[in-house]
Amino acid sequence: MKKALIAILALAVLAAGVIFAVGQTASKGDKRSGRRGGHHRGAGMAFRAIGLTDDQKAKLKEFRAASRTNIKPIREAMKASREKMRTLTANGAFDEARVTALANEQAGLQAKLIVERQRMKSQIFAILTDEQKVKLAEMKAKAGERRKERRAAKAEKVSD
C-alpha cells in the first residue's frame, strides 16, 4: 500500500513538472513570469520552434483553457487537503489512521490531476503534423542530453 502511494505521488510530481513546462509560454521579458528575455526554454519556446500554424495555436489555446477549467477544482481540493494535513499534524500531533486516510485522498486527487494533464498532452500531440512530432522529439532528446550534462557537471563540482 505504501509503495503504491509513493509511486502515485512520484508520478504526480513528474506529471506536475511536465504540465508546468507546457504551461510556461511567457514571451521574452514577460514581467508576469519573472523571466528575462532569452532564458525561457519551456514548451512555449518548443512550440514556437516547431512552427505551429495559426489554427494549431488556436486549438492549443482552447486545450489549455479547458484544462485550466478542469484542473481548477482539483487544485482547490488539493489545497484544502494540504491545509487539513497541516491542521491534523500541527505541533507534532499524529493520528496514523487519519493521516493515512488524508494521504489516500491526496493520492486520488493527484491521480485525477495526472489524468487531466495527460489528456491535454494527448490533445496537443494529436494536432501536430508528423514533421512537428519528429522535430519536437529531437528537441526533447537534446534537452535531456543538456540536463544530463548539467547534472554531471554539478555532481563533479560538488565532489571537488
Structure description:
The chain is mainly alpha-helical. It has a domain at 1-16 and 53-146. 79% of the residues lie in helices and 0% in strands. Helix 1 (2-23) packs across helix 4 and helix 3 (54-88) runs antiparallel to helix 4.
SSE topology:
Layout: H1 2-23, H2 43-49, H3 54-88, H4 96-127, H5 130-159
Helix pairs in contact: 1-4, 3-4
Structural class: mainly alpha
- Outline type: flat
The largest sheet is: none
| Mean pLDDT metric | 82
Element-level helix/strand string = HHHHH
Count, helices: 5
Question: How many whole angstroms does the radius of gyration measure?
Answer: 19 Å
Portion in strands:
under 5%
Separation, N- and C-terminal Cα atoms: 40 Å
Number of strands: 0
| Sequence stretches where pLDDT stays below 50 over 5 or more residues | 25-41
Q: Helicity level, as a percent range?
A: over 70%
